[in-house]
Specification:
Layout lengths: L1 H15 L5 E12 L12 E13 L1 E21 L5 E20 L12 E22 L6 E2 L2 E19 L2 E12 L7 E2 L7 E12 L1
Antiparallel strand pairs: 1-2, 1-10, 2-3, 3-4, 4-5, 5-7, 6-9, 7-8, 8-10
């Protein structure tokens, strides 16, 4: 048992020096997919925001543990043309905090991964969002929909893919794209009778610095 503990300590010490902790700052965009998309696969309800990600090595050379906070300002509208036009316009502020793991793919050789020119990765996150919805204008909304205004809290799960493009051993450009499932049907300001969770598509470009 003691031998195992010693080997584990040596292993963690070696892997912790294989890549440094890092911090990444992103400018990001968000697209909300819910009732307001009207069944379209691509929504026109967009938000812009900022994202701060902190990461540290976690056991393996190509595995990191992450913490992330982000903010989005979102503009959402819904329109349906019939005998009467249904219309809803919502502005939302969304604050998120979460954590997860990042796995770097295709890392070869014994060199620290921060020396690779391109570092492809996949990340999984779980977290909590606080969102405030402000109704700007609302008319003739179908009774089967519920319009939300004020503060809503909901958990979420993220699955992201990205690449870090090396500038030098301590700095890189970070690009990512992924999906977020909100365990809420009120992110777009309208909930349907089916109460299916809203989805979000995230895009980001940022700067990563190894500490």
């Amino acid at each position: 048992m003691r031998v195992f503990v010693v080997l584990l300590i040596v292993f963690l010490a070696k892997t912790s020096t294989a890549q440094n902790s890092n911090v990444t700052f992103h400018g990001t965009a968000l697209s909300v997919l819910g009732e307001t998309t009207g069944g379209s696969r691509i929504g026109d309800d967009f938000g812009l925001g900022l994202n701060l990600r902190m990461a540290a090595p976690f056991f393996l050379r190509n595995l990191e543990i992450n913490g992330e906070i982000s903010f989005y300002q979102i503009n959402i509208d819904y329109i349906q043309v019939g005998s009467e036009i249904s219309f809803n316009h919502t502005k939302a502020s969304q604050y998120n905090i979460g954590g997860g793991l990042t796995l770097y793919l295709f890392q070869k050789g014994k060199r620290p991964s921060m020396y690779h020119p391109y570092r492809f990765y996949m990340s999984g996150y779980a977290g909590v969002s606080a969102q405030t919805n402000e109704i700007i204008e609302s008319h003739n909304i179908n009774p089967r929909f519920t319009v939300f205004e004020g503060l809503i809290l909901f958990p979420y799960g993220d699955l992201l893919g990205g690449v870090k493009i090396r500038i030098n051993p301590r700095n890189s450009i970070d690009l990512f794209m992924g999906g977020r499932m909100a365990l809420s049907d009120a992110v777009d300001g309208i909930a349907g009778t089916g109460a299916a969770p809203d989805l979000m598509i995230r895009l980001g470009i940022g700067y990563c610095h190894s500490l």
